[in-house]
Every structure is written in C-alpha cells, then in structure tokens.
Amino acid sequence: MDGLFLALMAALVVAGMIIHRKARDPEDPFGRWFQSRVQSRLPGLVTGFFLVTFLVWAAIYVTAPEEDRGNLTKTFKGWFDTKER
C-alpha cells in the first residue's frame, strides 16, 4: 500500500473524530450551529445520500453493456493491478 494513502486515511479519521467531538459540544460555536441547523435534518440527509447513491449505481448498471454488467470485480482487480506497477 502507498504510504501517502495510509497517511491520508489516518488524517481523515482524526479529522472525523475532531469534528464529531466539536459537533456534540453545546459550548462550542460549531456545536451550537450543528445542533440547531443540521441535527434535525440529519435523518433526511442520510436517506437522501443513500437514495442518490443507489440511483447513480442503478443508472451505471442499466447503461452498461450486457457483457460488462457482471465484471465489476474483474474491473476493480485490473484497475488496482495497474496502479501497483
């Protein structure tokens, strides 16, 4: 694995933990903003995200040629093999 990729993933985890802690703190200005504006809309946002993701993948599947619809695993393996070289 690439060291830059691992460092980026670790940085994203740390950033997520910091944002989560600040969003849950009612004393923090970001936490107050998050709780007043985002928290009440969060279930709808999550549902919308998953619905849009499903529709995008459904569109990709429907528009793909018939012979390529079952080759997703082979495609990803081929893509990762070419990245490592």
Characterization of this structure:
The protein is flat, with a radius of gyration of 19 Å. The termini are close together. Helix 1 packs across helix 2. Helices cover 79% and strands 0% of the residues. It has four helices and no strands. It has two domains: 40 residues; 42 residues, no CATH class. It has 85 residues and is mostly helical.
Question: What order do the helices and strands come in, and which of them pair?
Answer:
Layout: H1 3-24, H2 29-38, H3 42-63, H4 72-84
Helix pairs in contact: 1-2
Give the number of domains.
Answer: 2
Strand content: under 5%
Mean pLDDT: 86
String of helices and strands: HHHH
The structural class is: mainly alpha
> In this structure, how is the largest beta sheet organized?
none
Seen as an oligomer or otherwise, the chain set is single chain
Distinct helical segment count = 4
Distance between the termini: 12 Å
Share of helical residues: over 70%
Outline type? flat
Instruction: Please provide the count of β strands.
Output: 0
Poorly predicted tracts of residues: none
Task: Give Rg in angstroms.
Answer: 19 Å
